[in-house]
Amino acid sequence: MLFKCLPPGAEIPGRFPGPAHARGKWFTVDIHCHVLTPKAAEMVRGHAAATRHPREEYANERTRQVNREQAERTRIQFTSVEKRLADMDRMGIDIQAISPSPNQTYYGADPELGIATARVVNDNLADIVGRHPDRFAALGTVPFQAPDLAVAGLDRIHKSLGFRGIEIATNVAGEDFSAERFGKIFARIEELGLLVFMHPTGFPEARRFADHYLVNVIGNPLDSTVAVHHLIFGGVLHDHPNLKLVIAHGGGYLPAYSGRIDHAAEARPDCCEKIGRMPTTYLKRLYFDTIVFTHHQLEYLVEQYGADHVLVGTDYPADMGEIDPIGFIESARGLDDNERRAILGGNAARLLNIEIPRRPL
Fold first, then answer.
1. What is the pLDDT of residues 342-361, one digit of tens each?
2. Is the pTM value of this prediction over 0.90?
3. Domain of 198: which CATH number?
4. CA gap 279, 358 in Å, rounded
């Protein structure tokens, strides 16, 4: 008998918490949650380079169909603040660090369109935070394809909009972040003390990933894995030692197979030309969200990289997200309460400069 999938939109039995379970004991900050800005989507309509999306480009028709159905079902969560707040209360989330829907970085757009869409996306995020400053912080976007405009955009979101960080993709229309022209952007991010949340947009060479949603199931973690390798071996983390970088989906595959990068640095001169220490030293400076789905992998991240480098995330409202973030952390037997407290909100509060409210005893 074949495994029977749940009906579309159904909740996994026993996994979704009620308000009585969820809120009160912990201060919680969701580092991984997205907002869709319909106005920006309209601005890029008809611009093929701006809207290229590997997850759609390489998917088969069945996956595209499911994606369309999923987009329709989740549109209200992506766009309605009222629905979002209700779901946050249900999940036990005090604050969301909202970031753009991953396909709304628009790095493939021409510079003028890129800065225009970034402004619209950022203004939408700012409006949400402005209406509910006790429930939201914002991670904005800037047009990396035009570094000078990106630097100006960073100044705007930090000084004018009060954002705590930015979301970045894993590459800029196929160009890796280790390219020299992006150095000025990372330098300004570092100067401003902004948090960087890296989220994949789909592996750009995914011809073998057409079936079974492999464009996401494999492609997203793989995309992040490749990007982090470039950040390390390309010298970005060496050149910017104070960069605060969170990697989505538990950091991809590299955190669990890190010995290979150290071996490469020792074995090959072309793997150590832009770094000043062993590659895993840079890896251990990074932060990872908790979207890993098993306690074994969660506890491995804590053991290897420290509870202070792991942050709870949901990927709200995506179907590949975590629907019971607090229950997932609470039920991890290998964690103590101090580690749970840090993962659920303390680490994000520190990185985003959010004041932790006192809880009644």
1. 999 999 999 999 998 876 54
2. yes
3. 3.20.20.140
4. 39
